[in-house]
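Work Package 3 (structural annotation) set out to generate three-dimensional models for the target panel prioritized at the project kickoff. During this period the team completed the workflow that converts sequence records into discrete structure tokens, so that structures can be stored uniformly alongside our sequence database. As a representative example, we reproduce one entry of 136 residues exactly as it appears in the project archive.
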Amino acid sequence: MAFGSFDEGGTGQPMAEINTTPLVDVMLVLLVIFIITAPLFHQAVPIDLPQVSASKLDDKPEVIQLAIDIDGRIFWNGEPVARDALDGRFAAASGRQPELHLRADRKVAYEKVADVMAAAQRASIVKIAFLTEPTR
């Protein structure tokens, strides 16, 4: 006795096809229901909002471009600065919560970079970005 077939000359294996017609029927009925009910979900309450004249806030933080060249000299936004003056500049800028973009020559000793990062951390500057050049 074979399933899915009434002929006696078959191979005797059950039919392996899934009947998807009821599934498609149910999906089409649900689609029609959602199309009909979707406009009813919008329940707006008409209100009269007050008019305000306010200027747009500038949310861009101050960016400090700090560079260390191969000789270990430090440049603050392009101008050279001594290492002992760096702590004072970081302290003055920390109130504005700036971003520090640190760029160092690849041959600079890690000690110099770590010293600058430690000075920034002592001044509560927490946003530090390391700028690199992409490989070509």
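The CA atoms of residues 14 and 24 lie 24 Å apart.
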